[in-house]
């Protein structure tokens, strides 16, 4: 074989070897491709929408953010349609930098297992969502340390505003709590439990700070207690019992214990005193109502005012177990009116706090505050709003058996 033939043979064998090598490489590449993570599709931008629509990025931004613009409705709808087709999602981080707003609010609550707070949180989240805000909800479990840690996290998150139902222990240090929240710089809305210092400012303008960033919203629990007392008195009752956190009394108008003060004060106006042994200090739980039922029944009471609906349920169930008829033998009034879906076979009279109304007014105030509103400066008295509760009469109150 001459040199040419040898060279020719070498060249003629090359394509076969090369083809085999390419096949092996292709298969390896395919296997690697299968193992490799899928790339996330590129996120659509304003420029992408603008390119398809044949307009500027600024024009797209104006339309999608509902800002004043000179475009026809047909053009605006075309831009929106293209945005939908491209699955455009606004870049919240970029928007936050541009507007100096995170569109993020926070709610710190003391006990998510309490149905009143859970219902309130649900309504507030809906109100915030409707206004274009996200709501972070943090449960402190009535722990003041957790409350402080939660506040620190909210500051780090860069929230626009805070709703807070303080722990009972922090209420005892209301001046320091107020000072701590004032330093945050963002609007603060106290709900349901109003610190004494806030109450003082509302009652005495001289104590108020013109730079205060707070507002407060609660039901007038004193009036709520009065409503319950009047309902019993009108039915001829004179022997009363109470169950709830009665030791948490004071000048905190949003504090739940104010309902008991209102109840006792109204009874005193009619010349009725409740012996201390008939005032039972317990939690807002079904078990508290049940645990104290025997003592009050044995003491001969004909009417029991319960701190909330859960307590009323516990008491009523135990009274029935004892063979008593409610309301023929003993009358019961609860508080909150959040138990309508609890699956009860009785409907008890209760003092209603409309959680939807509380959520609405507090959220409206927050949205005005974070949006700078009209720039109106509120007095300390105007910053605190007390909503009026109402008595919902059902089937657990009747005339006293001795009347």
UniProtKB/TrEMBL annotation:
<dbReference type="InterPro" id="IPR010982">
    <property type="entry name" value="Lambda_DNA-bd_dom_sf"/>
</dbReference>
<dbReference type="Pfam" id="PF13377">
    <property type="entry name" value="Peripla_BP_3"/>
</dbReference>
<dbReference type="InterPro" id="IPR000843">
    <property type="entry name" value="HTH_LacI"/>
</dbReference>
<keyword id="KW-0805">Transcription regulation</keyword>
<dbReference type="GO" id="GO:0000976">
    <property type="term" value="F:transcription cis-regulatory region binding"/>
</dbReference>
<keyword id="KW-0804">Transcription</keyword>
<dbReference type="InterPro" id="IPR028082">
    <property type="entry name" value="Peripla_BP_I"/>
</dbReference>
<dbReference type="GO" id="GO:0003700">
    <property type="term" value="F:DNA-binding transcription factor activity"/>
</dbReference>
<dbReference type="Pfam" id="PF00356">
    <property type="entry name" value="LacI"/>
</dbReference>
<feature type="region of interest" description="Disordered">
    <location>
        <begin position="1"/>
        <end position="44"/>
    </location>
</feature>
<keyword id="KW-0238">DNA-binding</keyword>
<feature type="compositionally biased region" description="Basic and acidic residues">
    <location>
        <begin position="27"/>
        <end position="37"/>
    </location>
</feature>
<feature type="compositionally biased region" description="Low complexity">
    <location>
        <begin position="1"/>
        <end position="19"/>
    </location>
</feature>
<feature type="domain" description="HTH lacI-type">
    <location>
        <begin position="44"/>
        <end position="99"/>
    </location>
</feature>
<keyword id="KW-0678">Repressor</keyword>
<protein>
    <submittedName>
        <fullName>Transcriptional regulator, LacI family</fullName>
    </submittedName>
</protein>
<dbReference type="InterPro" id="IPR046335">
    <property type="entry name" value="LacI/GalR-like_sensor"/>
</dbReference>
């Amino acid at each position: 074989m001459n040199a040419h033939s040898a060279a020719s043979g070498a060249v003629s064998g090359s394509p076969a070897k090369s083809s085999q090598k390419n096949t092996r490489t292709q298969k390896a590449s395919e296997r690697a491709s299968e193992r490799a993570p899928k790339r996330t599709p590129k996120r659509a931008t304003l420029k992408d929408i603008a390119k398809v629509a044949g307009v500027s990025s600024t024009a797209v931004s104006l339309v999608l953010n509902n800002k004043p613009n000179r475009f026809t409705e047909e053009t605006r709808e075309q831009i929106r349609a293209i945005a939908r087709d491209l699955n455009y999602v606004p870049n919240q981080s970029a928007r936050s930098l541009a507007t100096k707003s995170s569109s993020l609010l926070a709610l710190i609550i003391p006990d998510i297992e309490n149905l009143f707070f859970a219902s309130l949180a649900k309504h507030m989240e809906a109100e915030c969502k409707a206004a274009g805000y996200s709501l972070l909800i943090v449960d402190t479990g009535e722990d003041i340390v957790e409350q402080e840690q939660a506040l620190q996290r909210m500051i780090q998150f860069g929230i626009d505003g805070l709703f807070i139902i303080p722990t009972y222990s922090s209420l005892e240090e209301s001046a320091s709590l107020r000072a701590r929240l004032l330093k945050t710089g963002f609007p603060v809305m106290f709900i349901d439990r109003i610190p004494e210092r806030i109450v003082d400012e509302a009652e005495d303008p001289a104590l108020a700070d013109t730079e205060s960033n707070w507002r407060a919203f609660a039901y007038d629990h004193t009036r709520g207690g009065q409503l319950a007392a009047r309902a019993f008195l009108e039915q001829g009752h004179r022997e009363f019992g109470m169950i709830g956190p009665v030791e948490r009394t004071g000048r905190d108008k949003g504090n739940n214990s104010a309902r008991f003060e209102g109840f006792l004060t109204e009874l005193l106006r009619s010349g009725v005193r409740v012996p201390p042994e008939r005032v039972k200090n317990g939690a807002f739980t079904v078990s508290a109502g049940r645990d104290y039922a025997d003592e009050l029944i044995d003491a001969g009471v004909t009417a029991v005012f319960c701190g909330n609906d859960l307590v009323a349920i516990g008491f009523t169930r135990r009274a029935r177990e004892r063979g008593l008829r409610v309301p023929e033998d003993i009358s019961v009034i609860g508080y909150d009116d959040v138990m309508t879906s609890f699956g009860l076979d009785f409907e008890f009279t209760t003092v209603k706090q409309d959680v939807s109304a509380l959520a609405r007014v507090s959220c409206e105030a927050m949205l005005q505050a974070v949006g700078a509103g009209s720039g109106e400066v509120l007095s300390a008295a105007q910053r605190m709003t007390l909503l009026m509760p109402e008595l919902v009469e059902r089937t657990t109150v009747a005339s006293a058996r001795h009347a």
